[in-house]
Amino acid sequence: MIDEYLDTVAAALGRDRHLARRIRHELGDHLQEALTADPSPDREAAARRAIARCGDANMIAAQLAVAALSRRSQHLAFAVVLALLGVLLSMKGRLAWYAAMHWKMADEMTSAAATLGWITRFAFWAAIFAGAIAWVYGGYRVSRDAPAAGCSRRLRWFCVVSGATTSALLVSVFGDAGLATMRLLSTSPSAAFLLPVASILFEMVCAGTLVCLVIVLVRRAVHAGRLQAACAHSS
Amino acid sequence: MLKGHLDMIVLAALSAGPAHGYAVIEEIRLRSGQSFNLPEGTVYPVLHRLEQAGLLSSRWVVAASGRQRRVYALTRTGQRALAERQAIWQRFSAAITGLLTGAPDGRKPA
Predict the structure, then answer these.
(1) Which one of A23, A146, A209, A235 is CB 3.0 to 4.6 Å from A142, fit for a cystine?
(2) Could you tell me if residue A157 is inside a domain?
């Protein structure tokens, strides 16, 4: 009976396996303590009472899911800053490499490269701007205020701003990839190509990681919202 | 009303020293003279939330029974937060008492 109850809480937490495992241990220990403290010889009745005192499994899962969003928001806010820094360093390193190698852009590509360069710079600065807002929301406002308010407006804003940062960063990274391709096409192939290619791959990994984290946060927020709505509906 | 003060209640219960979830519930019952009978499971989301806010720290320990259990303790930030909330509560409590009794600082009128 206790195992069924713990399974219900863990299952309601969905894909957050770490949280599900942790709460399974914590609640399991709690219920065993409650059973030990119950002097009744009827152990089944004692288990029923312990579970009843614990409360609705879905309600507990909903509250835990909301509480976990705060930690995820903070992680994403850190990831945004790290990804932006990583991409910036990668861009600067690549430009320094081009200068050291004396690689010039082919004349027929100069105009297209200038336009793409402008788009890339604009996208990167937009990512920095949105990232700064995401940092403020995720690192401070969401983590301090949102847990008490549940899936709040602030959390939705944080998801929107993080999504905007990630989109702008993706544009910037793809722009960088285009510019690097133009530069490499203007030069004779050599082992020195490895560094710009590696730096572009690194930028893609940074942006890809952000995309994954934003998707996970949005999914968890939607899941927590649904759990809350289901609990509100049933109560 | 209790729900709005759950954070303070849990912090206060942990002010006596580190404890696991079940012990926190027991402490709340004991200190409140059995008045607060909230669903026991609801203390865990509060403990997790306070830990994420940096007000509590936690670690796994092995109980005498051999079971693994999570033990929570107040951090320094948690102690400061509790002191702030206690001060706010005491001002609020004195104001309401004053309102109900007619004496500005909560003393009963002669």
Answers:
(1) A146
(2) yes
